[in-house]
Each structure stands twice: as structure tokens, then as C-alpha cells.
Amino acid sequence: MSRVLGSAPAPLLRRIMLQGKYEALTMLRNGEQLILAIVLPLLALVGLTVTPLLDGLGGSRVDVAVPGILALCAMSTAFTGQGISTGFDRRYGVLRFLSTTPLGRTGLIAGKILAVLAVLALQVIVVAAVAFVLGWQPTTAGWLPALALLVLGAAAFTALGLLVAGTVRPEATLAITNLLWILLGALGGIVLPAERLPGGAREMVHFLPSGALGEALRDAFLEGTFNAGAALILLLWTALAGTAAIRWFKWN
Amino acid sequence: MLRVVSGVSLTAERGQVTALLGANGAGKTTTIECAQGLQRRSGGTVSLLGQDPDTAGASLRSRVGVMLQDGGLPPSARPIPLLKHIAGMYREPWPVDKLIERLGIDTFSRTTVRRLSGGQRQRLALAAALAGNPEVLFLDEPSAGLDPQSRQLVFQLISELRDAGMGIVLTTHLMDDAQRLADYVYIIDAGRNVAEGTVAQLLQRNVPADAAQEHVRTLLFEARPGLDFTGVLPPAVEVSETRAGSYSVTGALVPEDLAALTAWWAAQGIMPGSMSLEARSLEDVFLDISGREIR
């Protein structure tokens, strides 16, 4: 038996694309993740258009609801879904094994971000399609700022998800990310605008990633404007959680 | 700072199997994980293919294969897509279909990792470690959970890879693994290496003068590969071909056993290239060195 041993790594971009594709497909094949990513946001969308919760906010029910639902999608995928899968991958040594391949730690993180963006793109398409059927009429000028803000929001939530997944046990990650999804989803200013929340929450939610993203997307799709203040808040969360994750993430 | 390993110094060569032998908790895994760059070391130096694994990049990682003790495979994955995915990280991977065939993965290719048996999972983890056709292969407890058939398959492959020039470093707490596979053994105890040498050299160490007459003995000899010993020796005597052409005969050997064996050689026209009779096993050596108390 005689042959040449050793291989060069595949190009960096190809490794990241492969990992992104693999993780995105894994997410989409997982039943619970699919419920969280697609089914629950669609149920919330329909719920908000048939109830008067969003009446009197300067737009049709569906027009006010859709931006918040898109923000909810970003939180589902980047924070809860990605956090849980990373937590369990860490438990099973998957992160450690992949970090010994040419992919490495940086490629692994890049692949995860790519997977989040791919699933988020799919969510946007599905939600928008259903929303159009329900009569959604977004401001055309709002698309560009909205998509940019959605990516920024996904970055903030990904960093937060990685921070949780990398520091506590996967069971705790499961509990924390699901609980926060429900709490922030209901009271975080994400689907229900701040003015519809109880007094205490009303002022605070502007500083949460959920409230900032929900508000910024509503401003984009309803008014066609870019909410720089909310963008700054999202940027701060990304930097803060990202730094903390780099500092405290435990690979095993 | 916790010092798990302090005072381990070892070298592994290409074309050799180097074994780190030690009890659970001796520091074997910590040692090889520092060598792989998986654990940050607080001191000391590591040179892997001439580079420091802590700072080296993808070009070093692609030349090194790693099989972790806990497998590191995603539970929901199926073997073939997983191997294809990992192979995609390399420019010239080991062809996945050949790898699958070689390790018998086709028999469970539709099963998710979660549902695989221990032996199947180990074989898949080995295939994953070999996906890049590495120059250096790290195996952390490769025989854990292996049934006899898988063990045979895995050991045979390891021997072939060694012969092809791969540098293989494995950890084990099983003397038999080391005895069957290793060209060179380091005995690790409490974070230090306490003895090293070829299996034969280690067996020669401090042979106690009072080794009892009926004590288990091991006869090692080299002859042509593939000999069939069926019926030559009593069933209680364990015979194994540790690698092609190297035989190990272990048991409470009596003079009649030696006579039967040599008579059989004469009848077959076999003249061993070398032979030695040891009153001790590697296990005895190990226990002498690291103590017999349970820790």
C-alpha cells in the first residue's frame, strides 16, 4: 500500500459555503425548528390580522403586523434556533471535531451566520407571500433599509444566541432561548409596538434588540425611513454580545 | 491554573504507531488535545509537522486527522452526507465511497448517528478523521466500544495506514491495544510520562526474579504472515497475529506447548525470523510502574 498522504484544504469560501448549506439544511429538517421559524410566525401574523390588537396605529392591521413578524423570524432563527443547535453541538463535541478540520473555528462561526441568513431569507419569502395574500402593502422605499436592518438584527441575535449556547449547558440554553423568545415576542416590542405595551415596558423596549428591530422595521415598511437610532442600538448589542461570546465561549 | 499534564515529553514518527498508555485520568487526552491545538496549553512546546498547532491555520489542519474520544458527530446526521460534507473541506479527500467500503459503513448508511452502535459510531468517527487522507492521525481511545469484528477491521486499517507512512498517535488504557498496534509506547501516569520504549523493550524492564513457574508467559515470534494455528495449541492459549507476520502466544504455557509449537513449525517448514519468551505482559510492566492501587 503506497500512496501520497495529505491534502491541501479546500478554499476558505468553499468551506464556509459548505458549512452554511449543511447547517441550513439541518435547521430546515428539524421539526421543532421549523415550527419556531415558520409556523409560529405565520400563526402570529394571521392572529394579528383577525384581531383588533393593532388597530389605530396608522396603517392597516396587516401593514403594522408584517414588519414585527419579520423581526420575530430573525429572533426565532438567529437566537433561539441557532442557539439551541449550537448548544447541543457543543455538548456532543461536534464543534470540537469540526474545529480540527480545515473548517476551523472561524469557518464554523461564519458557516453558522450564513445558515442563519439563508433560513431568514426563506422566512422573509414565505411571510411576505402570505402577507401579500392578506393584503400587505409595504412602502417600496422601505425594502432596502428593512433588509439591511434585518441582517443587523440577525447579527445581534446570533451573537446573543452564541453567547448563551457557549456558556451554559444545552438544556439551559433550550430553556433560556425559548423563554426569552416568548417573553420578548409578547412584551419585547417586537410584534406589539411599544405604545401597546404596559407602562413599565413601554420605555424600556426601545433599548432591547427586539424592540429596536421591531420599531425599525415598522418605520421602514410603513414610512420608508431608516431608523438610525434603532440601528445604533442593534449595533451595540451585536458588539457587546459578540465580544462577550468571544471572551467566554467554551468549546467543550 | 490546573496542571493536568506537566512533564510529558514525547515524539511520534511518520510510519509508526505511537501509543500513549495510561489509566483513566492519567492525562492522555489532555496531552494529545494540546498536540492537536484543541486545548490551550499554559506552557511547554508542541511541534506538529513542524508547526505550532495553536497558531497554525487550515493548511496544517488539513494534513492532520482527529478522532475524538466522544466522537464529535452530530446525532441527527446520516453517515454518507456527513462524510461527504467533511470531505468537501479538503482539496483532495480520500474518496468517500472507498472510505465507506473500507470501514463497512455501507451496512448502516441510512441510520442516524444517534441510533448507531458504539462500534459503528467509532468506525464512522475514524472515517471522518481519515476524510482528508491525513499525514498524521490522532486516535483517542480508538477501540472503545468496538465489537471484535470492528476491532479487527479498525486494527487492520491502522496497520495498513502505518505501513503507508501515516504517523499515528493513539491513546489507550488497554495493554492489549498497545501490544498489538504500537511501534513505540509511552506510559503516562499522573500527567507525566514514566516509561517509554518499544513493546519488547518495556517487557524487558525490571523482570522480577521471583516470577512464578506457572505465571502467564508470552511468546513473541515473527514468521510469514497469515499462519493458521487451529488445533496446534490448547484452546486456553491465546494466539494472535498482532500485525502481518508478528505473532503473540499468551497463556500459562508449559514445556509441552513449546514442543507442540516447534514440532508444528518443523512440519510446516517454518523458521521464525525472531522469537522471545517473556514472563510478563505489558500489563505487568504497567502495573509495576504506575502502582497497583485503585485510583
Distance between the termini of chain A: 37 Å
What Rg of chain A do the Cα atoms give? 19 Å
Detail the poorly predicted runs of chain A.
Answer: none
Number of domains of chain A: 1
Radius of gyration of chain B: 21 Å
Can you count the helices of chain A? 10
What is the number of beta strands of chain B?
A: 10
> Quick one: how many beta strands of chain A?
0
Commentary on this structure:
The complex is a heterodimer of chains A (252) and B (295). With 252 residues, chain A is mostly helical. Chain A has one domain. Helix content of chain A is 76%, strand content 0%. Chain A contains ten helices and no strands. Chain A has helices at residues 12-29, 31-50, 61-91, 94-100, 104-133, 143-167, 170-187, 199-204, 209-223, 228-248. In chain A, helix 2 (31-50) packs antiparallel against helix 3 (61-91). The mean pLDDT of chain A is 93. Chain B is an alpha/beta fold and 295 residues long. Chain B has two domains: 17-202, P-loop containing nucleotide triphosphate hydrolases (Rossmann fold); 217-279, Alpha-Beta Plaits. In chain B, 32% of the residues lie in helices and 19% in strands. Chain B has ten helices and ten strands. In chain B, the strands form two sheets. A six-stranded mixed beta sheet of chain B has the order 2-3-4-1-5-6, sandwiched between helices. Chain B has a four-stranded antiparallel beta sheet with strand order 8-9-7-10, with helices on one face. In chain B, a hairpin with a 2-residue loop joins strand 8 (238-243) and strand 9. Chain B is globular, with a radius of gyration of 21 Å. The two termini of chain B are 23 Å apart. The model of chain B has no long low-confidence stretch (mean pLDDT 87). Chains A and B meet through helix 1 and helix 4 of A and helix 2 of B.
